[in-house]
Amino acid sequence: MSSYLPCADSAMPPVVEFPQADAGFPAGMIAVRAADVICPGAATALLVAGSAVAPGEPLVFTHPVLMAPAVVRRGGAVQAGGWLPDHVRLGLLEEQLGRGVIEAVIEGAVRAGRLARPVRRRLMSLELACRFTVAMALSPECDYRETMTRLAGHLAGVPWAKRWHVPTSKVFTGWRRRLGWQVMEEVFWQAAGSIAGPATQPGQAALWCGLELCAIDGFQIDLPATVANREEFGSSGTGDGSGPFPQARAVLVTARAGRAVLGAAMDACSVGEQTLIARLVAGHPELFRGRVFVVDRNFRAPRGALAYRPRSGHGLEEVSVGLMAYLDP
């Protein structure tokens, strides 16, 4: 049997004789009509409609990858209609985000004039560039091409009528610049939120005195040592800003249940954590209503947390850890 992909050919034991084995099958993907595929029951393999399968009959098991309109060439070759960037998704992560959210964010940016859609369909799209940026952040061990190979998965092996291949690193860099940070920030706020269910449901969110238990903390992160990053973010540890790497400071608001990220703020390393959390309170007050937060004593500084702690709040401070409550007035 020679219809396996080359990378799997050596792993298949040559103990089963298939009809037409002498003629061989070309390596590639097997395509069947969608109407001919049936599923006899739960937890069973998909079957192609037709005569019943006899015991011992050789079968080829394939993994469903795509349903697309057929494109039949003059020579009889069958290819998949459509365009690969329209089909790439982020799997379980996108199920949590919601179907069509990335498309809606991109379309909103296009309508607002912040983005311009390319006239021609080539290797990338704005939506694929957005998903690629998310996948890149989740795969720090991979370079650009490795990340896209993972993201495209089996779709890259589909015989598309409009040919597609993994772009070069230069192409990815250009599309990330075209996309801009504003779109990715909006996608972040669409994805941020609790994953354990509302606090009103028993056994869902972790509660303390009827308030959802959360946490706030900050950190610094090294950035690529470029002139633009150093001018934008600066560095710490030296009086003249000549540290080895530019650094950004971020503050995260997280839920205790599921450790989901509820919100975040980021700026140059010279911007303090108290300033960043104050921005979150001003810009996203919904994050803090009905929740109590575990914070370190840095956030309880007189010019920090106390500056925006509501009069109706209540707190409990220990040696180095405090609780800060935000209640509706």
Report on this model:
By secondary structure, the chain is of the alpha+beta class. It has three domains: 1-64, no CATH class; 84-191, no CATH class; 207-326, no CATH class. Helices cover 25% and strands 17% of the residues. The chain has nine helices and eleven strands. The strands form three sheets. Strands 5, 6, 7, 8, 9, 10 and 11 form a seven-stranded mixed β-sheet that branches. The chain has a two-stranded antiparallel ribbon with strand order 1-2. The protein is globular. The protein starts with 5 loop residues before the first helix and ends with a strand. Mean pLDDT is 79; it is low at 1-16, 18-22 and 301-322.
SSE blueprint:
Layout (H helix, E strand, L loop, with lengths): L5 H4 L27 E2 L8 E2 L21 E3 L5 E3 L11 H6 L3 H11 L14 H13 L5 H9 L16 H11 L1 H11 L15 E2 L2 E12 L4 H7 L13 E9 L5 E8 L4 H11 L7 E6 L18 E3 L3 E6 L3
Helix pairs in contact: 3-7, 4-5, 4-6
Keywords:
single chain; 329 residues; alpha+beta; 7-stranded mixed sheet; two-stranded antiparallel ribbon; globular; disordered N terminus
